[in-house]
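Encode chain A's predicted structure.
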Amino acid sequence: MALTVPAHQSRYGPPPAGRGDPAAGPDHKEWHVAVDADGAVTAAPGSASLDRQAGSRVETIQLLTPEGERLEHPEYPLELSTDDVKGLYRDLVLVRRIDTEAIALQRQGELGIWASLLGQEAAQVGSGRALGPRDMAFPTYREHGVAWCRGVDPIKLLELYRGVSHGGWDPAEHNFHIYTIVIGAQTLHATGYAMGIQRDGLVGEDGEAVIVYFGDGATSQGDVNEAFVFASVFNAPVVFFCQNNQWAISEPLERQSRVPLYQRASGFGFPGIRVDGNDVFACLAVTRKAMQAAREGQGPTLIEAFTYRMGAHTTTDDPTRYRLATELEAWKLKDPIERVKAYLVRTGAADAAFFEAIEAESAEVGRTVRQGCLSMPDPQPLAIFENIYSEPNALLDAEREQFAAYLDTFEAEEVAR
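Encoded structure for chain A:
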């Protein structure tokens, strides 16, 4: 399926003619591009394309086709043993099971909300497995696959969505920051952390680096663009990993950018790359190279993982209200798990017993997650005031006393009965 995206060379002139697009006029030359379902962009004949070259196509790095065929790329060599590939397949399956179990728990009233990663497993597992033990990751609220790769207990993720903790894990223990709900804010945190690595002298041959995750919608946020500026001018060791899942809640990609997102990096002075976000091999290879460059002091990189959000934005969202079922069906054919399974089968690297064992383990993980969620103790009401400020705070103390007095009224009512 192809989407026709109108664009304009100038944004000045007569008032807009609908949905923010400038009206055509003497000084407004309109051109069109076709955005294919695989992320390729082709300009109309005789027009300027998104990268200003007529008729050019945007390269998307791919090492494993949807049919499970292995490809090679001269700039992104990747050597994987059979056990490595099996390990990646296991990651993908178990991460998806954690996600689907959490969705079910929310539907049954056990979680307040859940942000699904369905369809984005390869982008998260591939990039997550590219990180070194000393690298730091800054997530949004959807990076459950990266959390898995960093050794965070899945039940800790559910604590946040059940409302029994402020985050649930120690970022220093896993080199995985707590989830950030504010859209794009974590890019500034990550850039500042990366600048700190520089000042600590930890960039070099055996250096450290930072990766930060965000979505296509976040690229319209000021925080993200400010982070790009700081990372560029200070040559910070940070990789910006954008999971372009096509929909910023209900807004399509063409309402975020008139150029492929990875090309924005050139305007800030650092390289950008687009990778097939449903290809775990490509995501691993591209992220591994970008992280190594950052560790060595070569500065930031923007990776655009072109993928698709197969489910809802969160469990409060209904995607059927703003996108077509045919679009979803087209992306189901590019499922990140099925392509790895196809590769294992066509190469004879795995038999039926292997896949049955993974399914059994997946079922056990699901049971563990469900039991862990249901057995979470409710926090003490006054615990909400803990871990807010490092030193005593008069206003917070007053609010705590006021809330404690309010809670005491319930105890008095019980005694009266």
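Residues 112 and 225 are 31 Å apart (CA to CA).
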